[in-house]
Batch of 2 targets.
Target 1
Amino acid sequence: MFKQTTAITAMNLRAIPQRLGTSWVIVIGIAVTVAVLVSVLAMAQGFKKTLASTGRPDRAIVLRGGSNAELSSTLSRENTLTIMDATGVKKDADGKPLASAEMVAVVALQQRKTGTAANVTLRGVGPKAFELRPEIHLVAGRMFQPAVRELIVGKSAVAQFKGTEIGSRIAFRDSEWTVVGEFESNGDAHESELMGDIETVLSAFRRNLFQSVTVLLDSPEAFNAFKDKLTTDPTLTVDVKREAEYYAEQSKQVSKLLNFLAYFVGGFMAIGAIFGALNTMYSAVSARSLEIATLRAIGFGAGAVVVSVFVEALLLSLIGGTIGAGVAWLVFNGNTVNTLGSNFTQVVFHLTVTPGLLLGAIFWACVIGVVGGLFPAIRAARLPVATALRAA
Amino acid sequence: MSAIVSLHNVVKTYTRGKQTVEVLHNLSIEIAQGDFVALMGPSGSGKTTLLNLIGGLDRPSKGEVNVAGERIDQLSSGQLAKWRARHVGFVFQFYNLMPMLSAERNVELPLLLTNLSSARRKQNVQAALAVVGLAERAKHKPAELSGGQAQRVAIARALVADPTLLVCDEPTGDLDRTTADEILHLLQMLNKDHGKTIVMVTHDPKAAEFASHQLHLDKGQLVEGSVHA
């Protein structure tokens, strides 16, 4: 059986150059399907990675109870002080808590690529914000000064939005803010934000309520004690989450949507590719019906014929899948895009084509090939030898 | 000599739409081992159907078909394929060679169904090509061969596994007279010198003269001939 299958498969594969046009239908159809699937999944992957990398196990975020995101949360100044003084919050050398009571607001900036307006997060941060987030560091310019309308801008935001370069002036809330620095934050969600002094931002937006408090804990294990302290305090109604958990939740909806989109669009394209494969393999079987009948007459088994048709379909699919995955990796991996996050603001992230994603896409390409080769293989096996020989 | 092919009361019907057409009517024949039989008759007389039954490519609707000591009408498709590989060599009108394979690779095909080693297969292929006088064309592909040469390669392929029976369907139907005669001489040589039993369908009376016996079919029945039950 193995020798028979090898012999017929080798013959089929050698005949591919004579059927190059129809063979390309499988290869291109599957390559395009895989490229689309990989690119959308890479978006989901990149978005998830960006938000997931924002959290640290020894940091916690506190929001008003029942709030899904910072934008819908409010905390009084008194509450923020209670939170920052709670058990488990790490203190600096002076005994001050490493915590930042923050406010987020939405400002409209123009996207560099399209020129259209997009919502960007402006975060007002406390004086300890950069001690508790050591991953944030300036790459150009200087830190904003308190009580002055100055901002620092994340590197991803600078890449995506106009007028965010150092020295630029951004107008919102009836005044102009000067960009004085650019920061990096290991590519996490904060890199899509503008940051300024919390008191200045609160004053500009005429608010006296904060929206979140982020704290650095003594250790990751201190979280439960910290949470218990806050949730049992009758003066507080708050939700306490590990930072990583919070950002994972924030990415869930968008990731779900992108995954659905990938498999929905990819599914339709896969159906098209299956029909392409079916058509190609039917043509291949039809073009070779005399050869198949002759081999069957000589004594080759139907099983060997079936396997050979499968192998051909699989090989062409594998080539298509590899080309599609390769193109997706070359074109999309590392591309910077932005989408609406949970605060109704843009999160800038990089498309991430992982090896797992590539292998998964190639696996689906092979599934398309197997399904596309199935019926033609059955037809080849059922080909009545005497009739096929007579038809020649 | 003992009969290598024996058909008893064979009926073959085909269904075309709502119509059932009986192609062979209670046909009984015997062909002795080592014979060279020409099956003749007008178009639609059932000669190719009869050849397909003898070669195990088709099954009768009724009756018994015994070839090479086995009742092949009762074999499953898989068993029939194995039986064909062991006992029958086919020669077709249009050669039916695999266009992408060289002459020697074409001839080797039936040997891939045996347990012979690669070296032994190569040896047998060379011997078969030598018998048909084409040893020097072993590396050529069918498109690089003349019609006569291609048919010789097809005959070498039919011979190479040393089958019990050679089944030839209009083997000279696509060839000019001179080349056809060469092929027929070759078949005659295989019959006389190598003892091969040959059953050949032909329209051509001159081709039939190369056979030891002739069977004439008309409307699915044997009408005359020197070999019959």
Target 2
Amino acid sequence: MWDNLSLKEVVEYTKDPFPSIRKWAKEKGKKVVGSTIADVPEEVIYAFGFLPVTLVGTDKPLKKAPSRLPDNACSLARSNLELVLSYEGDLFDGFVLPQVCDTTQHLSDIWRISFPDKYVECFLAPRQVDRPSARYWVKEEIERLIESMGKWTGIGITDNDLKNAISLYNENKRLLKEIYDIKKKNPETITNREFFSLVKLSMQVDKEEFNKSLKKIKDSLAPKKGDGYLDIVLAGITCDPPEVYGLFDEIKLNIVADTLVTGSRYLDGIVPDNGNPIDALADRHMNRNFFSPIHDNVYRNFEEIKALYKENNAKAVIYIHIEFCESQEYDLPDLKKMIRKEGIPMHVLDTEYQTLSLSHLRTRLQAFFESLKGGSL
Amino acid sequence: MSETPKTDKPKKELSKAQMLSKKITEDYMNEAFRAHELGKLIGYTTAISPVEIFVAHDIVPIYPENHAVANLTAKKGIQLCSVTENLGYTSHLCAYARSDLGYRETGITVTKGIPEPDLFLACNAQCFTLTKWFQVLARKGNLPVFVFDTPEYIMDKKAREEIIKYCVLQLKELISFLEEITKKKFDYDRLKEVMKYSAESSILYKRFLDMAQYKPSPISIFDALIGMAIAVYRRGTPECVEYYKTLCDEFQEKADKGIGVLPKDKEKYRLYWENLPVWFKFSDHAKLLGSYGGVILTSLYVHAWSFEFDLNKDPLLTLAENYVSRFSNSTLEDRADMAMDLFKRYSMNGMIMFMNRSCKAVSFAVPTLKDVLVKRTGIPALVFESDMGDQRFYSETQIRTRIEAYFETLDRLQHKV
């Protein structure tokens, strides 16, 4: 189903991947396990024979979630809850939900109580990463997840099962990185929306099949530089709805680097495939780049964005703010100040999962880049 | 909470416990302002954090939350929060944090303020907000932050054992962190001594809260909120033990004489409160509810400081076990059990569930917790949304009407019975 997709089809599937997942799971007789972002070791879920699907909200209307999570709760958390309560809950046999902040901690409880007949496990990610105890803890949590899934399924997994999953997932990330490298230097070849759709769909469908599409797509790309593109760094956690990438394409912005959980933070999660696979997964967790809720080094976000901007010779930074994401909201005022002090142009886009009209974002983006082009460029 | 805001009301004669509380607070703040002179450092920390380690290492703990409470109770919320919002922070962040950042900008406070920090300890068993708020403050002075990460105390026994191990490991890291900053060896014997005081005062504090079992209750949640201040910022000291002995004696005397918050024949509704209080409506709420025969007896929040330290265990182990299992770090199911225990022990027959815009860590549990508690107790609940410190989110008429309607419902139900 996903082994011979064109770029156009990938964009369509990403908009609503669930009908195809539903069909695939039925045809293959496979069970599906959903996770919210971020950092659940999906290789473990895959090794147990499930299809791991990362949930990244829905643009369908909110009906049930507001009675569980009030309107000042993170837009992504509410949207994900709605996705399972009203629309796709029956597709999943179980869920593994990471806890990285107050909202995700509550979300995991609400989810478990809402689905008493399903397997709902939490992944208690360390909310500090600079001390040895964090490495100890993340390994404990990976082992607990393996044990918990083992109890649920009644089967165990071997190191080889896990290594095979890691190998497949690494291959996916390598392919995406290769395509990203082509895109960065040749923006006319593949649009922002197409590329980030490839990443997002990779997080939701069977990798064994989808890697075949990725290979074909990569081989078919004829690099074209194009004219009038402006290179930018995209910062944040997620960027939705996908039409936002379409806006970047419209005004010829070329994303050359990013810090997204649904972008480079995922691609950089290649796991060393030698030695003990659980240790390797724990090391991967520790080495991942900045994610606002779990990093206690208060300057790391700024340092990473600045480095990406300079290394890639970008012209501006666009920060995607998810409405009511508390973690981002504490970081943002200082981050803006620090980035602007460096003389780096920065623009913040406020996004909400249920927003359908992007006209206000378009106007703000156009105004920012017109002033940028009229200024130092 | 810590520093009583100034009011124009005529001075009431203070009880022995109140005088003691005043003296302890004054001594504490005087020491804090002279900390550097005394060769001590100031550590900002969260109200729920293993402060015993600070006390044992001569770090003076300061709680920006307490200072925020004083300003918010004195209705400085709008003024201070607006300043912070003009810096780019959104209006739906915690009012403690917003008012504190506003204080940093303007120096406006109804107290003498609080000393500047040298380091931070954020324990996320309380909330994640404090970690982010402390990070903002740390950036101002490039100061060190230690995050004591307490994963949710999930219901699996084996997982709990692992969580405790992780927390003990971190407490050792905290000790090394403090030793490195202060260039002073940590004294474990001193910690054992501090733990004795903390354990004793916690038992007394719980005894004080449990006065709500009496009928009529000599204590309301408003007494508990005032009475908890010393437990928050002076636990681990002999004066804290002395204070709670005095406080317990005073309330025990009231209970023995049958003196209630409301007279016995007027005490119709013994209420549970979920969440922090609306600080700037503190006394108004007590009066309004009292006029309907209602007394709010307790909340999980005030019980957050009734620790049960086991002095026979390694101090780091009992610290980890206690801090990780606070209500604010417990699952919804466990929170419901904790509340049910209070319902039974205090014979409560009503509940007010406050959706506090400022406190996501507590409030996001409220809708589900309300459903569970209503189902398990058979008692209807009053749910209202507002903010603990930002008056712009408080609608007087709406909340008053809801409270009136709630008591009408309770009256109707009582008559049916």
